[in-house]
Amino acid sequence: MSILVDKATRLLVQGITGGEGSFHTQRCIEYGTKVVAGVTPGKGGNQILGVPVYNNVERAVAETEANASIIFVPPAFAADAIMEATDAGIPLIVCITEGIPVMDMVKVHSYLKGKSTRLIGPNCPGVISPGKCKVGIMVGEIHLPGNVGVVSRSGTLTYDVVAQLTSLGIGQSTCVGIGGDALPGSTFVDILNLFNVDNDTKAVVLVGEIGGIFEQEAAEFIKGEMTKPVVAFVAGSTAPPGKRMGHAGAIITGIAGKASEKIKALSAVGALIAPNPAEIGLTTKRVLDRIST
Amino acid sequence: MLQFGIPVPKGRVVFTPAEARAIAEEIGGKVVVKAQVYAGGRGKAGGIKMADTPEEAEKAASQLLGTRMVTHQTGAEGVAISKVLVEEASEISRELYVSVLVDSTMKLPLMMASEAGGMEIEEVAQAAPEKILKVSIDPAIGFQPFQGRKLAYGMNLTGKQVAEATRLMTNLYQLFMTKDCSLAEINPLAVTADGRLLALDAKLNFDDNALFRHKDIQELHDEEQEELLEVQARQWGINNYVKMDGNIGCMVNGAGLAMAVNDLIQYCGGSAANFLDIGTLNTTDRVVNAFRMFVADSRVRAVLVNIFGGMARVDVIARGIVEAYQQMDISFPVVVRLAGTNVDEGKRILAESGINFIEARDFYDGAHKAVQAAKGQIK
Q: Which of A273, A289, A251, A136 is nearest to A205 (CA)?
């Protein structure tokens, strides 16, 4: 098993005819993902990369039975795209778009309430279950199928973490980028919950960063519910307060937003903290060696 | 504030002590002179001065203007004070606090109110969290009068003040939504001796992601209040640049990785001169401009390039580095760690160019070598 995406995933691409949309659609297809449809309003009836393009999501779902969507729509229109996919009943939406206004996301969250759709992102690299399915923009080749779940607020730092794991022979069940925004569709807690009940996941690597209280919420969950070991790293120990560090959500505005506070919370509930970002792989290896003996 | 019907004291922003005096005369009576800077904590830092006469207002302005103010939200260098606000000093009986922000847990706008105004709300949250009242707002229906009454009575307001406070909070919420704020804060919200409510100080933070639909806010941007290097970076198309206190120039793709690189440099015993997320690029310009930044920054003793290509292609980065060497005189050692999309091509380009750089095997090796290079231990 794995979480969120696998061989049964039938992917729809919103914004498939754009530069990024078509580039990454091709990469996903090459990785083995079943891309069944694309949507670009006004371009319905065409084909791109052998994939039929529709004018709207509802029609695309009716004709192709797509059960997941990846969104490459520009920031000003991305919230609308998320709600359109939700309305069409798609159970999993992965939004790659960076730069969506916070108030637009407030509306999206309000719209998602009471519906069963799960949103990953925005401003994220997506989701990959190595060897099965890639719904994202990450480099496929660095991944290795296996039993460690990865969940992260970052993109490229996650690539480095995955490369560290793979070079040590540690495969991944699923890697989930929840994104660097202040109001992500899914939080650490949501994803830890899924990994917790996934038979193929034996341990989880959590990569947090400054800003918000997502890591503290994760710590609460680990304390109360998590039955599997968690390895953690929090980026931004050196970040100055009050400055936005690239990601919209990566800004220290209160005491809880500091890396040291997050590390303290995670450490207190038994998560193993990697001493530095280059030793996340090694720390995970130590944890795996311990549980296998 | 005025535009949204929020009562504020009479006053004006001025740039010279003489103007401060003139405005104080116009207002008549006691005035307050406040440094106008983009940072919280200015009261504690001496940025707010009382003046009984126009002469005192002039003196207070001259003490503030042209100096730099250091608060817990600025760096050690502080920010320059180029203007001050001169406004009427009201006789105040109580200081309250109200703000609107987006609650990341509820994913809804949140109105916060407190009787403990006049100090940092974070301090109140630590010392007396029960004094902070909160109501979540449904964006579909907006801020409701009952919520206003709940907060107003909670702050022990009475009589007409309750309706007045409710109207003020409704207006503050309107402002917050209309302008795509990430924070709209009135602190202190004064209750004057004669029972009126008056917003004595306010802080508005705007959502960077929403600036495209607010031309008026883009124009408010005051570059004087920013670090010179950060202004320069933006002019050169590098939007994700933050000045740090060290001497190792960093160029990284991705914000999380860029933060982690700075953390790792510190772990290795060094210190980064900047945070720089180069982003995704298809041309070499931004790489060349990043090197221009390092050359312009006299503190830089070594440079670390750490790229894990995903969307960003390593070969483009490598070509940019070579171009930078061709276009400028690079006197500091440059450590390069490359991985990811098109890495072999990138490494070949660097090797064949004949430029003098230090190759790093991996993430740790890169940071370690950059720290050594900055200390002059390797070249």
A: A273
Name the residue range of residue B152's domain: 91-224
- CB-CB contact of A11 with A28 (8 Å): yes
* Angle at alpha carbon of residue B67, lines to B64 and B73, rounded to 5°: 95
Residue A175 and residue A63 in one domain: no
User: What are the chain A neighbours of B122 within 8 Å (beta carbons)?
Assistant: 254-255
> What's the rounded Cα separation, in Å, for the pair A86 and A101?
19
Neighbouring C-beta atoms of residue B25, cutoff 10 Å: 14
Q: Which of A117, A1, A32 is nearest to A67 (CA)?
A: A117
Cα-to-chain-centroid distance, residue A193 = 14
Closest CA to A4 of A137, A154, A146, A177: A177
Active site residue B185: yes
Task: Supply the pLDDT for residue B226.
Answer: 64
User: Cβ distance B104 to B84 under 8 Å?
Assistant: no
Contacts of B362 in chain A (CB under 8 A): 278
Among A92, A120, A148, give the residue marking a domain's end.
Answer: A120
Chain A residues with CB-CB distance to B99 below 8 A: none
Query: Both tokens of residue B353?
Result: 């160019």
Cβ distance A235 to B139 less than 8 Å, yes or no, reads: no
Does residue B362 sit in the same domain as residue B295? Answer: yes
CA distances from B145 to B165, B195, B376 (A): 10, 21, 66
**Per-residue pLDDT tens for B196-252?**
999 988 888 888 889 888 888 777 766 555 678 888 888 888 888 999 999 999 999
- Nearest-by-Cβ selection for B263 from A100, A163, A276: A276
Q: How many CB atoms lie within 10 A of CB A108?
A: 24
> Which domain range does residue A251 map to?
138-292
Q: B242: closest CA among A241, A102, A213, A262? A: A241
Residues B36, B81 contacting (CB under 8 angstroms):
yes
Taken as a whole, chain B contains a residue count of 379
Report the complex ipTM: 0.91
Write the CATH number for A101: 3.40.50.720
How is residue B298 written in tokens? Answer: 């006299």
Q: Where are the beta strands (DSSP E) in B253-369?
A: 274-277, 302-309, 334-340, 358-359
